[in-house]
Amino acid sequence: MMPTRSMSDVFKLPYFEKPRQLRQTWLKDVGYDEAPRYIERMGLTELEDFLEVAGQRLDYVKIVTSQVIYSPHDWLKRKIATYQRYGVEPYLDHGFFMTAYQNGVVEEAIAAARELGYRVIEFMNTTDEISPAQWKTWRKFALENDMRIIQEHHPIWHWDRSLPQRPSSADEILRGVAPALEDGAFIVMIDHEEFDLQGQWAAQVIGKVVDELGLEKLVFEATSPKEGPMLWYDNLTNYFAMFGENCNVSNVMPSQTLYVETMRAEAKKCGQR
Q1: Which of 74, 170, 180, 213 has the lowest tally of Cβ within 10 angstroms?
Q2: Considering the entire predicted model, what is its pTM?
């Protein structure tokens, strides 16, 4: 009798042990917040089954802010703990920070999130409305509460919609994220809107950032399906073409998760031609 062989053995699929610095895939979890622009959900029942299949392929998960604020406390704690049990780390996205800032409760919100079980928070670049000293205080507070920090870069008009939409230079991106990296941020997220504004210059401009920080220090965010059903696919195709199959990508929906591996494999084949 032939020994039992898995499909991974038969097709010689690569296995990437966690934790890993490259080839990371970050999930977006909208919970039951399907209306008006999402068509998939992730409650506790679906989550356990999903992670049994896909957990090894995932590294971090953004639980959307509306879900964090409005879900029952104990239910959310169980969801966070379930992800962590499968080695997928939940993080608070920049929308959480913005909501806390607008309500004047940044430190209280961080402390409450830590009590829920969160260990990672994403901060964002802003105008000088928030001083460097205040940013340093909040980063220190997060670190003192055992929260690791993601620093997101996006076009500055995302913070102030009255500002013009324009691409950033590589130097502007690097200067903007430098204080957070100096204070202990472990990775920089580049928002898809920055890539959109860069257009044909994206590989050159973001490539300079890659050269300076290293690919393992960056994660590239895909567009949510609410903004267009296939924009995420175009984004990921471009990221893998520009920076290789092993670059880190985020904002991936549950239904897209397994297909990301197909896209990475296709990018590798194209690179070998």
Answers
A1: 74
A2: 0.94
